[in-house]
C-alpha cells in the first residue's frame, strides 16, 4: 500500500458547548453605575473569554451583576473559566479609580447550559437587562434561573 497516496487521518475532538454564566458583585454593591465603565468592563470580560478560547456571544448586565453568553472551550472547565473571568476582571476594575479599590465579585456564580436554538433568545435577554431589572431584582432573576434549571440550593449560602 502506498502511504503517500493515503495520508493518515488526523483525529479531531470537537465541541460546541454553550453556557449562560451569571454572577454578581459582592453583596450586590452597585459598583458599576458608570455606564461607560460598565460597557468597557463588558468588552474586557469578552476579551478574557476570547483569550480562553471561550467565544463570547454577548456580555451584559447592570450595576450589580453580569451575564455572559459564550461557548465553553473544549478543554476548559466551567469553574476554571469563571475563575479566570472573575479574577482578571476584578484586578482590572480595581485600577479604574480610587472608589473601586475594594471591588469584589461574589464568591458564587451560576453556569447554565443552553441549546444552539436558544442563542437568540438568551442574547436578547442579556441585551435587555436594563429594562428587565426595572421590574425584577437580581435575586429574583437568579431564583427564576435556578427554578427553570431545576437546581435546588440553600439560600443561606447563595448570597454573599
Structure in words:
The chain has about 160 residues and is of the alpha+beta class. It is about 35% helix and about 20% strand. It contains five helices and four strands. The chain has a four-stranded antiparallel β-sheet with strand order 2-3-1-4, sandwiched between helices. The longest helix is centred in the N-terminal third of the chain and has 17 residues, at about 35-50. The model has no long low-confidence stretch (mean pLDDT about 90).
The stretches of 5 or more residues where confidence is low (pLDDT under 50) are none
How many helices does DSSP assign? Answer: 5
| Net shape | globular
Number of strands: 4
Order of helices and strands: EHEEHEHHH
Major sheet: order of its strands? 2-3-1-4
Helix content: 25-40%
Question: Which features would summarize this protein structure in a list?
Answer:
160 residues, single chain, 5 helices, globular, alpha+beta, 36% helix
List the helices and strands and how they pair.
Blueprint lengths: L16 E8 L10 H17 L4 E7 L2 E8 L5 H17 L15 E5 L4 H9 L1 H4 L5 H11 L12
Antiparallel strand pairs: 1-3, 1-4, 2-3
Helix pairs in contact: 1-2
Q: In a nutshell, what does this entry contain?
A:
The chain has 160 residues and is of the alpha+beta class. The protein is built from five helices and four strands. Strand 2 (56-62) and strand 3 (65-72) form a beta hairpin.
